């Protein structure tokens, strides 16, 4: 495993962090559901940008620079987040529009700002792992996955579980190029595979390759769902290729592994790197992350 690179860590100066927090606290409080309205997202972003000027703009520019080169992510430290999520929304709105599944007040995940608790993780039917513990792309069951995802660490696991992991597409392609399967990269670029679309999008299947020149998408169970439920097939050769890819992804030592601490803000390019977390074995864990999808 590799540590998160220092070149992609941004330490926010204390005066700027204090200013961002104080401005955010003065803005009107809005519910999670209200933030589905893009105008509400934009209003918070504009207010913070107007009040914090060059400091806020400089922070956004520094994050953008990190997102353009491997590992296609930025880890921001030193921020002070308000409980109304106004700073969190504004930071995300700087990189696009926050998007989500249809709102469901009964489900912490089915909201614009997702509340990520370990108990809500989805088990993979084929084994004892959970999908969040396997390197994957978020929104793989959309016609096009979200461009970015972000996480705010509210509380880490007190026993050290739930460490973040990620790998970028260039590192993965180098690993695949050196494996024993000849032509595997060509297959992954050229052959389309079926992806089960989410029920709230009407279901069905969309066909697309796992790798393109500038992106990758991987979530094995979404492909397996399509194969099991939609009457579609892949050749034995392509199924073998998927198994090789799965093995390379989950057993390489080139994965970046790090712990998020309270107040950390992580944003990554969901179309150019895969992410996961390590298992959480503490039955009484109070770990809480806020997550957003950005398009």
Automatic annotation (TrEMBL):
<dbReference type="GO" id="GO:0017000">
    <property type="term" value="P:antibiotic biosynthetic process"/>
</dbReference>
<keyword id="KW-0045">Antibiotic biosynthesis</keyword>
<dbReference type="InterPro" id="IPR050411">
    <property type="entry name" value="AlphaKG_dependent_hydroxylases"/>
</dbReference>
<dbReference type="GO" id="GO:0051213">
    <property type="term" value="F:dioxygenase activity"/>
</dbReference>
<feature type="domain" description="TauD/TfdA-like">
    <location>
        <begin position="74"/>
        <end position="293"/>
    </location>
</feature>
<dbReference type="InterPro" id="IPR003819">
    <property type="entry name" value="TauD/TfdA-like"/>
</dbReference>
<keyword id="KW-0223">Dioxygenase</keyword>
<keyword id="KW-0560">Oxidoreductase</keyword>
<dbReference type="Pfam" id="PF02668">
    <property type="entry name" value="TauD"/>
</dbReference>
<protein>
    <submittedName>
        <fullName>TauD/TfdA family dioxygenase</fullName>
    </submittedName>
</protein>
<dbReference type="InterPro" id="IPR042098">
    <property type="entry name" value="TauD-like_sf"/>
</dbReference>
């Amino acid at each position: 495993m590799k540590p998160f690179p220092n070149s992609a860590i941004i330490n926010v100066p204390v005066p700027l962090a204090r200013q961002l927090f104080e401005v955010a606290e003065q803005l009107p409080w809005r519910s999670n559901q209200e933030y589905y309205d893009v105008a509400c997202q934009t209003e918070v972003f504009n207010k913070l940008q107007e009040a914090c000027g060059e400091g806020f703009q400089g922070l956004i520019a520094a994050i953008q620079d990190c997102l353009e080169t491997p590992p296609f992510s930025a880890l921001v430290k030193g921020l002070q987040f308000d409980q109304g999520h106004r700073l969190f929304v504004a930071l995300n709105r700087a990189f696009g529009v926050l998007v989500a599944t249809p709102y469901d007040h009964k489900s912490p995940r089915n909201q614009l700002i997702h509340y990520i608790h370990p108990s809500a993780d989805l088990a993979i039917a084929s084994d004892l792992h959970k999908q969040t513990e396997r390197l994957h792309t978020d929104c793989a069951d959309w016609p096009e996955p979200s461009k970015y995802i972000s996480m705010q660490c509210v509380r880490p696991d007190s026993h050290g579980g739930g460490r973040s992991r990620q790998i970028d597409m260039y590192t993965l392609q180098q690993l695949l190029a050196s494996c024993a399967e000849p032509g595997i990269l060509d297959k992954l670029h050229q052959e389309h595979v079926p992806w089960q679309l989410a029920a709230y999008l009407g279901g069905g299947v969309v066909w697309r390759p796992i790798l393109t020149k500038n992106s990758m998408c991987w979530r094995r169970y979404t492909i397996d769902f399509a194969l099991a439920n939609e009457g579609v097939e892949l050749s034995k050769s392509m199924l073998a290729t998927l198994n090789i890819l799965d093995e390379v992804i989950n057993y390489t030592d080139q994965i970046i592994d790090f712990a998020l601490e309270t107040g950390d803000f992580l944003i990554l390019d969901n179309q150019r790197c895969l992410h996961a977390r390590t298992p959480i074995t503490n039955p009484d864990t109070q770990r809480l992350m806020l997550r957003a999808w950005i398009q």
